[in-house]
C-alpha cells in the first residue's frame, strides 16, 4: 500500500497511466474508423460496379421491337449475360489508373437473373411501357371536342341506359296500345247501329180469346169425322138421299129442298168453325211471334251490350297495364332525353275519367235494357205454354137436327144456330176451370206488357250513343292526320331501304372477309402465339343477321348497360386514353377505302386493321373489321336514338302510337347514311368522311367524327382485359418476327459478392458493420435491378 501511495503522490505516476489510456482509446477509434471508411468506399465501389453491370446488360434491347412499337424488351443472349456482368463489374472495381487502392476490393462472384414476372405478359409492365411510348408518340386529335364527348357520355350514361330500356320494349308497348285500341274498336263495332225493338202487343179480349182458343183446340172434335157438327151434316145428307130415293109418288120435294138448305147451312157452319179456329190460331200465334221476336232481338242486343262492355273492360285493363309499364321506367327530369321519352309515352295513356265517360253510361244502359229484356222474356215464357195448350173436353152426344117440310130457310137456320150454340155452350161449360186459368194467364201477360212498356229503352240508346261518341274522341283514338299518315309511310319506306342497305353492307363484309386468302398465314401465326400464351380468342367473327330493323336496334340497346361504364372524367381515364392513342397511331387502324361501292379488299387486310384485331381477337380472315363495322353500326344506333327526340321527322308523332316506331325508323335511316360516310374513301378532307357525333343536338352537331374517331371511342368503352394485352404482344411478335416475345424480360437482377481485407481490428468491424467477417476479410454483397 505504501508503494502505491508513493508512486502516485511522490513520483507523479498517474499522469503517465492516464496518458497511455487516452492514447490507447484514440488508437482503437482511429483503427476502426479507418477500416470503416475503407468498407464504405468498397460498398460504394461495389454498388457502382453492380449498377453499371445491370445497365450494360439491359442496354442490349431488341431494336426491331423498339423501332416499330417503341417498346423495350431484352434482346441479348441470356447465356452470356453473366460473363458480361462479371467483366463490367471487374472493370468498375479495379481501376487501371496508378493510385493507391485504399479499399482493396476483390470481386469474388457475380450472378445474373432475369425476372420472369417482368415480361410483357405482366399487365403492369406492358401498360407502363405503352403509357411511356404514348406520351411521346400519341396525339389527342379531338382535343376539347373529345373531352366534351366523354363528358356527355359520363354525365348522361344513366339517361342513355334508361332510353335504351324503354326503346327495347317498343314491341311490348305497341302491343299493349294495339290490344287496348283493338278492344275499343270492338266496343264501337258492337254498339254501332244498335237499335232496340219495342214491344207491340195487341191487348185482346180475354173472354173472346179464350173462346177462340177452345174452338180452335176443338175444331177437329166439332167438325171432324166423329164430331157432332160433321155428324149432323152426314145425317142431313143421309136423310136427303133417302128422301130422293123414294118413288115419285112418295117424294116430298119441299122436304128435299129443306134438306138441301139445311146441308148448305150446316156446311157454312162447319166452314165458319174452321175459319174461326184458323183465325184464333193465327191471332194467338201472331201474338206469341211478336213477343218472341222482341225477346230474341233483346237477347241479341243484350249480348252485344255485354260484349261491348267486356271490350271496354279489356281496353281499360290494357290501358292500366300500359300505364304501369311506362311508370315503371326510371327516368330523369323533363330536360333529359329519357324523361322526354317517358312524357311522350304518357300522352298515349287514356285518362281514367275518359274511360268513366264510356263505362258509366254503358252500365246504366245495360241495367235499363236488362230489365226490359227480363219483362219480355217473362211475357214469352208465360204466353208460350198458353198458346200451345191443347184443351181436351168431352162434348157428349147431341140430338140430330129435326128438319121437316114445314120448315123454311129461316127456321132451318135457327135450328142449326141453336144447335151450334148449344154445342159451343156445352164445350165452354165443360172447360170452365181451364177458362179461369187461361184468364189469369192472359191478365198476367197484359200486366207484364204494361211494365215492359214503362222501361225507357230510348234513354238506354242515348247513353250508349254517348259512350260511343266518347270512344271516337281524339283523347281515345290518337288518330293520325292525313299528313301524318303520309309522313309515316315515307319514313317506313326509308327505314326499309336503310335497313336493307345496312344488311347488304354486312353481308358484303362477311362474304369478302372469307374470300381473302392472303391474310391466312398472318392469322395462323397470331393464333399460334396466342395459344402459346394461353390467350383467349373470339369464337367467330361472323355478324348475326337480324330479320328486322327493330331487332337490330334491340341488339344495340343491349350494349348500353356496359358500353358507357368505362366513361369517366378525363383525369381518371387519362392513362387509358394514352394507351388507346398508342394503339391507333403506333399499331395502326386505317380509314376504310370505300365499303359501300368501291373495292373493299384493302379494308379487310390485317395490316390496315391491326387495332380491330386487338379489340376483337378473331382469327378468321377479315372478321375483326366486320365486327368493328357491326359495333360502329350499333354505336351509331345508340347515338341516333338519342338524337331522334329532336328530329323534325319524329316530333310530329309525339303522343301517337307511332312515336317509338318513328324513333326506330329515323335511327335506321340516319345510321345507314352515317355508315356510308364513315367508310368513304372520299379525299383527304376530314369533313367528307365524318359525321356529327350526335345529330339534332346543337352542342354536338358541329363535332364531327370519322371511322378512326369511332374506334377511339369504342376502345374507350371496351374494358382492359388480359386477352387484349396478349393480343398486343401477339401483334408485336408477329410483325417483328421476334420469337417468344412474351418471354423476353424487361428487368434484370445483378448480384455481386466481393471481399475487403481489414487492416486493424476485424472483431470490432464485425460488431459495427453488416458485413460478414471471416478472419481478416469482410464479405460484401450488392444487388441491383435494371428495367425498361
Automatic annotation (TrEMBL):
Transmembrane domains' residue ranges: 15-34
Superkingdom of source: Bacteria
Keywords tagged on the record: Coiled coil, Membrane, Transmembrane, Transmembrane helix
Protein name: Flp pilus-assembly TadG-like N-terminal domain-containing protein
Coiled coil: 288-328
Region (Disordered) residue spans: 468-496
Biased composition (Basic and acidic residues): 479-493
Amino acid at each position: 500500500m505504501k508503494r502505491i501511495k508513493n508512486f502516485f503522490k511522490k513520483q507523479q505516476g498517474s499522469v503517465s497511466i492516464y496518458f497511455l489510456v487516452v492514447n490507447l482509446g484514440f488508437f482503437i477509434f482511429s483503427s476502426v474508423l479507418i477500416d470503416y471508411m475503407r468498407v464504405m468506399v468498397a460498398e460504394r465501389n461495389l454498388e457502382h460496379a453492380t449498377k453499371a453491370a445491370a445497365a450494360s446488360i439491359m442496354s442490349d434491347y431488341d431494336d426491331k421491337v423498339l423501332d416499330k412499337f417503341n417498346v423495350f424488351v431484352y434482346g441479348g443472349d441470356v447465356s452470356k449475360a453473366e460473363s458480361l456482368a462479371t467483366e463490367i463489374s471487374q472493370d468498375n472495381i479495379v481501376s487501371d489508373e496508378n493510385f493507391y487502392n485504399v479499399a482493396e476490393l476483390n470481386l469474388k462472384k457475380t450472378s445474373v437473373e432475369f425476372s420472369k414476372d417482368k415480361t410483357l405478359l405482366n399487365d403492369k409492365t406492358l401498360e407502363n411501357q405503352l403509357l411511356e411510348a404514348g406520351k411521346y408518340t400519341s396525339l389527342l386529335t379531338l382535343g376539347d371536342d373529345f373531352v366534351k364527348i366523354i363528358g356527355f357520355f359520363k354525365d348522361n350514361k344513366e339517361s342513355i341506359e334508361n332510353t335504351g330500356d324503354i326503346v327495347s320494349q317498343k314491341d311490348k308497348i305497341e302491343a299493349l296500345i294495339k290490344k287496348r285500341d283493338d278492344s275499343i274498336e270492338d266496343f264501337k263495332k258492337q254498339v254501332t247501329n244498335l237499335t232496340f225493338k219495342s214491344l207491340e202487343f195487341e191487348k185482346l179480349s180475354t173472354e173472346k180469346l179464350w173462346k177462340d182458343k177452345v174452338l180452335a183446340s176443338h175444331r177437329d172434335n166439332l167438325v171432324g169425322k166423329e164430331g157432332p157438327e160433321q155428324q149432323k151434316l152426314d145425317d142431313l145428307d143421309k136423310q136427303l138421299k133417302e128422301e130422293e130415293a123414294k118413288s115419285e109418288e112418295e117424294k116430298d120435294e119441299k122436304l128435299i129442298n129443306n134438306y138441301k138448305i139445311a146441308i148448305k147451312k150446316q156446311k157454312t157452319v162447319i166452314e165458319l168453325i174452321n175459319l174461326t179456329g184458323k183465325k184464333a190460331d193465327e191471332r194467338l200465334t201472331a201474338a206469341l211471334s211478336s213477343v218472341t221476336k222482341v225477346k230474341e232481338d233483346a237477347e241479341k242486343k243484350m249480348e252485344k251490350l255485354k260484349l261491348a262492355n267486356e271490350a271496354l273492360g279489356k281496353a281499360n285493363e290494357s290501358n292500366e297495364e300500359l300505364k304501369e309499364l311506362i311508370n315503371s321506367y326510371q327516368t330523369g327530369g323533363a330536360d333529359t332525353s329519357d324523361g322526354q321519352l317517358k312524357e311522350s309515352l304518357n300522352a298515349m295513356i287514356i285518362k281514367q275519367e275518359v274511360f268513366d265517360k264510356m263505362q258509366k253510361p254503358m252500365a246504366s244502359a245495360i241495367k235499363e235494357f236488362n230489365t226490359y229484356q227480363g219483362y219480355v222474356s217473362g211475357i214469352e215464357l208465360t204466353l208460350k205454354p198458353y198458346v200451345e195448350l191443347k184443351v181436351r173436353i168431352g162434348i157428349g152426344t147431341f140430338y140430330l137436327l129435326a128438319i121437316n117440310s114445314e120448315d123454311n130457310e129461316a127456321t132451318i137456320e135457327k135450328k142449326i144456330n141453336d144447335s151450334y150454340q148449344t154445342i159451343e155452350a156445352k164445350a165452354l161449360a165443360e172447360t170452365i176451370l181451364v177458362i179461369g186459368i187461361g184468364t189469369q194467364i192472359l191478365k198476367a201477360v197484359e200486366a207484364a206488357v204494361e211494365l215492359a212498356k214503362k222501361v225507357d229503352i230510348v234513354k238506354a240508346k242515348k247513353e250508349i250513343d254517348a259512350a260511343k261518341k266518347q270512344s271516337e274522341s281524339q283523347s281515345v283514338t290518337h288518330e293520325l292526320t292525313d299528313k301524318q299518315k303520309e309522313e309515316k309511310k315515307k319514313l317506313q319506306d326509308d327505314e326499309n331501304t336503310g335497313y336493307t342497305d345496312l344488311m347488304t353492307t354486312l353481308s358484303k363484309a362477311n362474304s369478302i372477309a372469307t374470300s381473302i386468302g392472303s391474310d391466312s398465314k398472318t392469322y395462323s401465326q397470331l393464333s399460334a402465339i396466342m395459344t402459346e400464351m394461353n390467350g383467349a380468342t373470339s369464337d367467330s367473327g361472323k355478324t348475326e343477321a337480324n330479320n328486322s330493323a327493330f331487332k337490330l336496334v334491340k341488339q344495340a340497346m343491349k350494349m348500353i348497360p356496359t358500353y358507357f361504364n368505362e366513361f369517366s372524367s378525363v383525369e381518371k381515364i387519362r392513362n387509358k386514353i394514352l394507351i388507346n392513342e398508342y394503339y391507333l397511331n403506333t399499331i395502326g387502324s386505317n380509314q376504310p377505302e370505300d365499303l359501300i361501292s368501291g373495292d373493299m379488299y384493302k379494308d379487310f387486310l390485317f395490316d390496315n386493321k391491326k387495332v380491330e384485331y386487338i379489340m376483337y381477337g378473331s382469327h378468321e380472315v377479315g372478321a375483326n373489321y366486320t365486327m368493328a363495322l357491326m359495333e360502329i353500326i350499333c354505336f351509331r344506333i345508340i347515338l341516333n336514338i338519342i338524337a331522334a327526340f329532336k328530329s323534325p321527322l319524329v316530333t310530329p308523332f309525339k303522343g301517337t302510337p307511332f312515336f317509338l316506331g318513328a324513333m326506330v325508323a329515323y335511327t335506321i335511316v340516319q345510321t345507314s347514311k352515317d355508315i356510308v360516310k364513315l367508310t368513304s374513301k372520299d379525299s383527304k378532307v376530314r369533313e367528307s368522311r365524318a359525321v356529327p357525333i350526335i345529330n339534332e343536338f346543337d352542342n354536338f352537331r358541329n363535332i364531327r367524327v370519322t371511322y378512326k374517331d369511332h374506334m377511339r371511342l369504342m376502345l374507350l368503352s371496351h374494358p382492359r382485359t388480359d386477352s387484349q394485352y396478349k393480343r398486343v404482344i401477339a401483334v408485336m411478335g408477329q410483325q417483328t418476327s421476334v420469337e417468344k416475345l412474351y418471354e423476353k424480360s424487361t428487368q434484370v437482377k445483378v448480384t455481386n459478392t466481393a471481399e475487403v481485407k481489414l487492416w486493424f481490428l476485424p472483431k470490432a468491424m464485425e460488431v459495427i458493420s453488416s458485413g460478414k467477417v471471416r478472419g481478416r476479410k469482410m464479405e460484401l454483397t450488392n444487388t441491383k435491378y435494371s428495367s425498361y
